[in-house]
Amino acid sequence: MSSADPAGAAASAAASAPVLRVRALSVTHEGADAATPSAVTFDVAPGEVVLLLGPSGSGKSTLALTLNGLIPHAIVADVEGTVQVTGLTASDTPVATLSTHVGMVFQDPDAQLVTGTILDEVAFGLENLRVPADEIMRRAETALRRVGLWERRAENPDRLSGGGRQRLAIACALAMGSSLLVLDEPTANLDPTGIEDVYAALADIRGEQAVVLIEHNLDVAVGHVDRVVVLDGAGRLVMDGPVDLLRDRAVELLELGVWLPTATLAALRLRAAGYPLAPLPLTAAELRASLDATPAPTVAARATAAGEVRRPTPADPLIRVRGLTVRRGRKTILHDIALDVRRGDFLAVVGANGAGKTTLVQAIAGVVPPPRGRIRVGPGLDPGRASADELARHIGFVFQNPEHQFIAHTVYDELAHGLRDVPDARPRVEEMLARFGLTGKEDVHPFLLSGGQKRRLSVGTALIAGARILALDEPTFGQDRERADELLGILDDLHRAGATVIVVTHDMQLVAEHATHMAVLAEGRLIAHGTTDDVFADRAVIDAAGLRLPPLAEAFAGIRSHPELDGVVRLHDLPEATA
Amino acid sequence: MSTETPATPQAAAFDPYAPAPPATRRHFLYRLNPLAKLAAIVPAIVVLVFVRDLATPLAFGALAYLVLLIGARIGVRTALLLAALPAGVAVLGVGFSLWVDAGGVDDTAVVWRIGGWTMYSGALAIGYATALRLGAIFALSLVPGLTTTGPDLVRSLVQQLRVPYRIGYTAMAAFRFVPRFRYELEVIRSAHRVRGAHGGRGPFAAVARWMGYVVPLLAGAIRHAERVALAMEARAFGAYPTRTERYPVPFRARDVVFIVVLWLVSAGVLVWGYPWQLG
């Protein structure tokens, strides 16, 4: 802007003009039959935060990549319609030019780091644009101060937590001077503290920066959003409006396969049970406030006693851990752990990053052989001594990335590997294939399966040798909601059938909904172990471990207006619908 | 551990981006251009490949130590390394002597005799000449090695040798992959072990086992590299033929002086040691 007058006019026009203008956008990937997204049209005004929702496969991430031109410039795809960012047409503007208008934050914080210090990281994009060095320093400082990382500018980004690295990615985008920030599942790889970290950074820039956000964890996100744009399973735009759409059309969204905030889901259920909740709440605080203002239903609805039938628990623990200390190098990862797991428990092992959760579960499953004589599994198996085959008959371990544990070239061999000592493996393999929906895929290479199929196969391989204990390391990490739900359904089925399940996880609502027991680790020590309800009732433990209460526990803890809801943490413990 | 901060624990131990320690006036090596340090030692290293005597490598080793002791900051680690190198050469020398064909040296003095086996002084001389050559080459390469950071080397390659920055800085970004892949390999190995994919002992089983790690490792690596590439492109990497250089690594008069001095000293040593054969 060289002369003052036209610049002023342009600025006032720009204030009302949308930052992003998407018109009839359809993207067809190579080899795909249909376009997702399909004929999508919407605008984003300056300073507006837009949440993009849709079931998996609706093309949300594809849409995100077209906004800064990576599609079609870096990833070839057939693009129809137009994307305009501050007046530039994305399909015929180089990505480098667009990078000063659109900043991207991706899901994996590790995959966005390229330099050796936090300061260099922020400078990286500006250097590529040949911005003069003193100007770079000025902009880097402003951006880093915005996300609270300026003091740590000389450190290696590796030393930041996951949440810190995502804040750094936001700073990198801010420094480029972009007027639109696109975040694609920015918190999917983070623990609860990291998620709050990212949203705190977003709250700081609220109103100054237009944001397009893709997120499946709505419990936190919903407080930071102005508008929602919803795609259906075929990638078509079905809703575009204020965030209140989530309340007003909640049922419709649920049918589309869009995930809703837990508080909204709970309120839907309560409404069916006769609680006149209107409008629907979006956050735990809103749920609690509207319950306080609502009389109890006339029909005497009461919470079902407990989510599941309580089996009589056998006195003798199935897994017994005593005095387990694990050192790696000079660092002590686990300090003197004592833990009993009973047959039929669904145990969630929780704690902040680096608390030793995975180490504990890997020791129990013998993935990393523990010191001898500290752990007993079943009648007398010591994972510190047992061979892999012996272990596999008692306890199956599912790694976070299923690909890591595939060792055969076909799905059939993958399953049959666990039965190599069994004379006639075929019927058992076929049974397992049918059980996990893999019939017909026998001859496929495991790496060529879809993500959900890989995950199911990895569970199948862990179970086929007859294991009645299944241990899983962050099974829902970085996955979309549908796939996570599918896996959790499998785990619930196994658990109902009598299997013992141990899960390492960060997802507190998952813990609340599925686990019967919880073990809380903090800095390598077991600070609590008990039933899920008891542990969630102990606020001090949850805080000490750096965890967060699941939204329902938050809403219902000590609620006076509706004593029947006090202490409920699970959706399915809420009062049943009155017929 | 798998989900939580991958790469962090290992990265703490080895940080390829760590800045050089603050340079004082005396520790001049840190203030030289990385290419100058390389250029200064390369002729000596090339000649060392061909010399056969004891004195020449010893002299070059002493030269390297002298330069390092004057021009580099000697911390505990460096001191240990510098102390361990002569010890390593001493052990290696005996090892090489055992390899020497006794037939060619049986006219030299007998040093010791154990049963039917004789160690001749000629064999020891050849063994130590070889070990000293390796030691001297290693010591010389410590001159740039201990006093240059990876990023500085990349920068000088880009700035002075005109290596395209797309190559140089991509290589630098790839440093980040190392701890990540090391971690991933560890996970894959334990995953395969827990599945009972041992396949027995011995070298063939080991090869088969490692082949089994390659597929998942490569699949993960390719996916990761694609993501990094997209993230870099989204930040305008490769937009122009040049990029702003916030850390100029100049090539100054003192770099030329350093090269010339080291070349002259090297030449002096070579003349002194000619014909570089065992007497």
Topology (SSEs and partners):
The complex is a heterodimer of chains A (579) and B (279).
Chain A: H1 4-16, E1 20-29, E2 40-44, E3 49-53, H2 60-67, H3 70-73, E4 77-85, E5 88-89, H4 95-98, E6 102-105, H5 118-128, H6 133-146, H7 162-175, E7 180-184, H8 192-204, E8 210-214, H9 218-221, E9 227-231, E10 237-242, H10 245-248, H11 250-256, H12 262-272, H13 284-292, E11 319-328, E12 331-341, E13 346-350, H14 357-364, E14 375-377, H15 388-394, E15 395-398, H16 411-416, H17 426-435, H18 451-463, E16 469-473, H19 481-496, E17 500-504, H20 508-514, E18 517-522, E19 525-531, H21 532-537, H22 539-544, H23 551-556
Parallel strand pairs in A: 3-8, 3-9, 6-7, 7-8, 13-17, 13-18, 15-16, 16-17
Antiparallel strand pairs in A: 1-2, 1-4, 4-5, 9-10, 11-12, 11-14, 18-19
Chain B: H1 8-13, H2 34-50, H3 55-71, H4 76-99, E1 110-114, E2 117-120, H5 121-145, H6 150-159, H7 165-174, H8 177-194, H9 203-233, H10 253-273
Antiparallel strand pairs in B: 1-2
Helix pairs in contact in B: 2-5, 2-10, 3-5, 3-10, 4-5, 6-7, 8-9
Name the helicity range of chain A: 25-40%
Shape of chain B: flat
- What is the radius of gyration of chain A computed over CA atoms, rounded to a whole number of angstroms? 26 Å
- Residue stretches of chain A low in confidence (pLDDT < 50, at least 5 long) are 1-14, 300-310
Give the spatial strand order of the biggest sheet of chain A: 6-7-8-3-9-10
Describe what you observe in this structure.
The complex is a heterodimer of chains A (about 575) and B (about 280). Chain A is of the alpha/beta class and about 575 residues long. Chain A has 2 domains: about 15-260, P-loop containing nucleotide triphosphate hydrolases (Rossmann fold), CATH 3.40.50.300; about 320-405 and about 465-550, Rossmann fold (3-Layer(aba) Sandwich). Helix content of chain A is about 35%, strand content about 20%. In chain A, the strands form 4 sheets. A 6-stranded mixed beta sheet of chain A has the order 6-7-8-3-9-10, sandwiched between helices. In chain A, strand 11 (about 320-330) and strand 12 form a beta hairpin. Chain A is globular. The termini of chain A are far apart. The model of chain A is unreliable at about 1-15 and about 300-310 (pLDDT under 50). Chain B has 2 domains: about 30-160 and about 250-280, no CATH class; about 160-245, no CATH class. In chain B, helix 3 packs parallel to helix 5 and helix 8 (about 175-195) packs across helix 9 (about 205-235). Chain B contains 10 helices and 2 strands. A two-stranded antiparallel sheet of chain B has the order 1-2. In chain B, a hairpin with a 2-residue loop joins strand 1 (about 110-115) and strand 2 (about 115-120). Chain B is flat and about 70 Å long. The termini of chain B are far apart. Chain B is mainly alpha-helical and about 280 residues long. Chain B has helices at about 10-15, 35-50, 55-70, 75-100, 120-145, 150-160, 165-175, 175-195, 205-235, 255-275, and strands at about 110-115, 115-120. The interface between A and B is large, with 80 and 60 residues.
